[in-house]
Amino acid sequence: MPTDEELRELCNLGYAASCPRLPRERACDAxxxxxxxxxxxxxxxKFVFEAGHRPAGYGTLEYDLSVGQWVSSQPDPRIxxxxxxxxxxxxxxxxxxxxxxxPSSANx
Length: 108
What we know:
globular, alpha+beta
């Protein structure tokens, strides 16, 4: 179990190159996700693998909200889990009422 200091200083922010638990042999250093399309019940996610601060691969995932399942998924279960976490976070933000975060003109 990493110590609090290890997590804070070595393993938790950005590229964790100095983390002693990081595998030496790995396909990528980071995975970035974005929503490329939100068509109501159909969500298109794009992802980019990064290695050495450069693109190292990319792909597209599709999720159907009407049936609650992935139309296309990532074969690597670790990347798929990251996509699921990203999707969950996106849906939580998407479903927040916009008016709650916009100050009214009376408060300006």
